[in-house]
Structure formats: C-alpha cells, structure tokens
Amino acid sequence: MLHKIEANTDQWFNAWKNFQYELIKNLTDPALWGGLLILLIKIVVILIVGRLTVKIVQKALQHILSERDKHPLKLDIRRTKTIGKLLENFTNYAVNFIMILMILAQFGVNLGPVLAGAGVVGLAIGFGAQSLVKDVITGFFIIFEDQFAVGDVIQTGTYKGTVEEIGLRVTRLKSWTGEVHIIPNGTISQVTNFSLYNSIAVIDVTIAYEADIEKAMKVLDETVKAHYENSIDMIKAPEVLGIQTLGASEVTLRVTVECKANTQPAVQRKLYAEIKRAFAANGVETPNPRVVTLQRSERMGS
C-alpha cells in the first residue's frame, strides 16, 4: 500500500515538473510571443480600419446631405435626412458585425458554422421576439411612407417633441423641456405631425363693453399688420375676423394669421405684447372685473 502511494506521488510530481517545464518553455519561446504580437497588431488594425470606415461613411453621408440642401430644387430634404441617419446606424451595425467576424477568424474560428448557426439563432429569435420584428417592420414603413422625418415635431400618444432619430427599432423624441423619449416603433399607432404644413395662430383679445368697437378693431388691424412687415415667421398678413364672443364683462375680438410650422406660439406671444402696448397707447379700454353689491334695508315693525 505504501509503495502504491509513493508511486502515485512520484507520478504527480513528474507530471507537475513536466507541466512547469512545458510552461516555461512556451513562455520563453520567441515564436509564441511573436505570434501573439502579430495577432494583437492584426486585431488593432481591424478595429482602426472599422472605425475609420464608419467615420468615412458618416462624413460622406453628411456631405451628400449638405450638397442636397444647397441644391436649388431642395427635393425631399426631410426624407433624405431621415434615410441618412438610418444609413449611418446601419453602417455602424454592419461594420461592427464584420469586425467581430474578422477578429474571430484571427483566432482560428471557422466562420462557416458560425454564420450558419447565427442564421438558425436569428430565425429562432425572430419567432420568439415578435415585438422586435414588429418594431423593425413598423420603422421601415414609417420611413417608406414618410409619416414623419428627423427634425419634425410630432405627437404620439402622450409624447410630443422633435424627432431626433428614427432607428430600425426605436424612435427618439426630444420634448421642448429637454426630456428625451425613446419609443419602440411597434407601439406607434397614431401620429400627429405638426411640421408638414403651415400653422394658424389664433389671437383672442378682450376689450370692455364701454370701449369703441370700431376704434379697437382699427388699432388691432394696424398693429398686427405693422408687426407682419417685420416678421419672418408670418406667411400671410394677419386677418382681423371681428367679434368672436360676448362675455359677461368683455367683448372678444379674434385675429388669425398663417405662419410657418411650429412658430405659432412665438407669433402669438409677440402679437399679444404688441396689441397690449397699442391698446394702452390709443386708450382702448380693456375689461376690469367689477363687483356690484346691493344692500336692502328693511323696516322692522313694532
């Protein structure tokens, strides 16, 4: 029994010595370190070439878009920007995928079975992740049908903002207060696009019943048309429609003006300020709340 234990111990000791010898031999082998250095250089070159390819493609797309913006016809600028952004994302995905395959090939991995397995796995994921497939298909139709584009102001559900990116899977919206909403394309069922056509700004101004209606409308008309001459956001001259409603203590006058898309809030604020100054300068009375108190005295009979 003791001889067997000693024999096993000698075998393990010899095996350990052989392992140490082979390890030291390999670690001190110049060919090994030379091969590792060459492998590392190849991987670094692949990564650098991949990053440069992405940068070159992005610069080329930006150049194409800028040249198209300078074109006198300016055809389909919205769709061009959207497709350009999508192509940038697609290029990034494709280059990264090719870089991974090339790096695996440097380690001696046979890419044939890997690609075949990736196809099978992709098919299985396609059946299992139906929502992902729905997102991609919906994103394709959003771009193909030109429902909205990068730079448009849209509202979908409770989210409203400027479209920053339309990807293969999600759409990014940035609200005017700075929040960024990332919405899966498959959940976008209804969209309101505020950037396709010009907007109508509606300005309702109230004056007192005691004010001269004709004078108020004349001042109002002169004020808004004077502001139109200096405004770059108004498409047509403002139109004073006249009396809109008769309230409890005020008369409401309405003005409408066609302006560029998504500029109506700024136009309204500017016109309200100009109208307020014009009414004050011309003595047009604005309504002030009045409270009338009636008192009844009763004689008490004795």
TrEMBL record:
InterPro entries: LSM_dom_sf, MS_channel_1st, MS_channel_C, MscS_beta-dom_sf, MscS_channel_2nd, MscS_channel_C_sf, MscS_channel_TM-2, YbiO_bact. The chain crosses the membrane at residues 31-54, 90-108, 114-133. It is found in: Cell membrane. It is a multi-pass membrane protein. Residues 202-285 form the Mechanosensitive ion channel MscS C-terminal domain. Residues 132-195 form the Mechanosensitive ion channel MscS domain. SUPFAM superfamilies: Mechanosensitive channel protein MscS (YggB), C-terminal domain (SSF82689), Mechanosensitive channel protein MscS (YggB), transmembrane region (SSF82861), Sm-like ribonucleoproteins (SSF50182). Keywords: Cell membrane, Membrane, Transmembrane, Transmembrane helix. Gene3D superfamilies: 1.10.287.1260, 2.30.30.60, 3.30.70.100. The keyword Signal does not apply. Residues 90-130 form the Mechanosensitive ion channel transmembrane helices 2/3 domain. The keyword Transcription regulation does not apply. It holds the Pfam family MS_channel_3rd. Belongs to the MscS (TC 1.A.23) family. This is Mechanosensitive ion channel family protein. It comes from Paenibacillus gyeongsangnamensis.
